[in-house]
């Protein structure tokens, strides 16, 4: 549950994004509220209604820790990179509850907000660039400043996870299932040095690139876990790209290519990274925050990046099986 004032927002609630002027009035000189930037990519949503996708009371960062955030939610809206030189990461946007107000539904008859002016875009764009040439500022790069750290000893505090349940971020079934898996992983990692799902690279040398030249809209199937492990080195990487255990449930599932990824902003440094070998994003396949100790029930829903060696092109449409644990 996340709210502002007396209002508490839960997953599924309708909200209206406030007008650009109302939101800009909440920002400091760096165009931030409590350390969280309001980015030019978000202006297009001002005055429109959306449903709460998840509570952002906690999140994860690029260095592998879990963090607390106050008064923020996720709507089902992702950054299009238009204000950051075409970054293709597609991060889920954070919305401070001060930037929203309750709505009755998609046809809420509240007065429409004024559209943003060109000078609003220019003002926000000016603070997306770092002082270092070729480096950028965005919500992802500023997460450390917009959040507080959850100390390692507090990661087993039940309250940290009960809020995932009460906010609607996870169902009772997910809460119980993945809570038990987390307890099991804490034991196996301490005594045996591994976690479920276990991922071990089996490639003895650098795997050659698999050039499928996939394009947006093409139907693909994720190869089996056994096939993918044969493409990974001892560090679980294929040509520098790490295979995350959160991607394992999608093995054997099919979906459509959303986009090719050739450039994205490094969350740690703010530098624009140009991938030597393009990866792809598959529509609907997101990090679930179910198996990682530092990302347990994290709602960021980051897109996994897929090497084409981990995929096979499908020639005809058919139903995509649901991911299984």
Give an overview in words.
The protein contains six helices and 18 strands. It has 325 residues and is of the alpha+beta class. The model is unreliable at 318-325 (pLDDT under 50).
Q: What is the helix fraction of residues, given as a range?
A: 10-25%
**Radius of gyration from the alpha-carbon trace, in angstroms:** 20 Å
* Ends apart, CA distance between termini: 27 Å
| Count of helical stretches | 6
Globular, elongated, flat, extended or rod-shaped: what is the shape? globular
How do the helices and strands follow one another from N- to C-terminus?
EEEHEEEEEEEEHHEHHEHEEEEE
Largest sheet: 5 strands, antiparallel
Strand content: 15-25%
Q: How many structural domains can be distinguished in the coordinates?
A: 3
Q: How many individual β-strands?
A: 18
Q: Kindly report the average pLDDT value.
A: 89
Spatially, the strands of the biggest sheet line up as: 10-9-6-3-11
Helix/strand/pairing category: alpha+beta
Chart the SSEs and their pairings.
Elements: E1 2-4, E2 7-9, E3 14-17, H1 20-24, E4 32-33, E5 36-37, E6 49-55, E7 58-60, E8 66-68, E9 72-78, E10 92-96, E11 100-102, H2 118-126, H3 143-146, E12 148-149, H4 158-166, H5 172-192, E13 219-222, H6 225-229, E14 237-238, E15 241-242, E16 254-265, E17 272-282, E18 311-313
Antiparallel strand pairs: 1-2, 3-6, 3-11, 4-5, 6-9, 7-8, 8-12, 9-10, 13-16, 13-18, 14-15, 16-17
A few lines on this structure:
This protein is α+β, with helices and mostly antiparallel strands. The chain is built from 6 helices and 18 strands. It has helices spanning 20-24, 118-126, 143-146, 158-166, 172-192, 225-229, and strands at 2-4, 7-9, 14-17, 32-33, 36-37, 49-55, 58-60, 66-68, 72-78, 92-96, 100-102, 148-149, 219-222, 237-238, 241-242, 254-265, 272-282, 311-313.
């Amino acid at each position: 549950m996340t709210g502002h004032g007396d209002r508490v927002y839960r997953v599924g609630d309708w909200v209206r994004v406030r007008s650009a002027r109302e939101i800009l009035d909440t920002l400091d000189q760096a165009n931030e509220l409590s350390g969280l930037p309001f980015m030019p990519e978000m202006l297009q949503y001002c005055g429109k209604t959306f449903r709460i996708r998840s509570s952002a009371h906690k999140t994860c960062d690029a260095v592998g820790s879990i963090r607390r955030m106050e008064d923020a939610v996720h709507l089902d809206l992702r950054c299009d990179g238009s204000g950051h030189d075409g970054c293709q990461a597609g991060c889920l946007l954070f919305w401070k509850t001060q930037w929203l107000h309750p709505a009755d539904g998609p046809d809420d008859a509240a007065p429409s907000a004024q559209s943003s002016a060109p000078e609003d875009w220019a003002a926000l764009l000016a603070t997306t660039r770092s002082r270092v040439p070729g480096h950028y500022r965005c919500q992802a790069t500023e997460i450390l400043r917009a959040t507080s750290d959850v100390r390692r000893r507090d990661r087993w505090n039940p309250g940290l996870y009960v809020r995932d349940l009460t906010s609607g971020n996870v169902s009772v079934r997910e809460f119980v299932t993945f809570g038990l898996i987390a307890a099991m992983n804490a034991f196996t990692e301490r005594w045996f040095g591994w976690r479920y799902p276990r991922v071990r690279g089996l490639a003895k040398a650098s795997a050659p690139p698999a050039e499928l030249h996939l394009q947006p809209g093409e139907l693909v199937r994720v190869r089996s876990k056994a096939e993918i492990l044969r493409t990974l080195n001892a560090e679980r990487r294929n040509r520098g790209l790490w295979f995350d255990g959160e991607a394992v449930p999608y093995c054997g599932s099919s979906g459509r290519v959303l986009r090719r990824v050739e450039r994205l902003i490094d969350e740690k440094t703010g530098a624009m990274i140009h991938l030597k070998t393009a990866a792809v994003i598959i529509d609907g396949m997101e990090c679930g925050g179910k198996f990682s100790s530092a990302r347990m029930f994290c709602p960021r829903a980051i897109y996994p990046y897929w090497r084409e060696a981990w995929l096979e092109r499908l020639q005809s449409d058919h139903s995509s099986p649901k991911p299984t644990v």
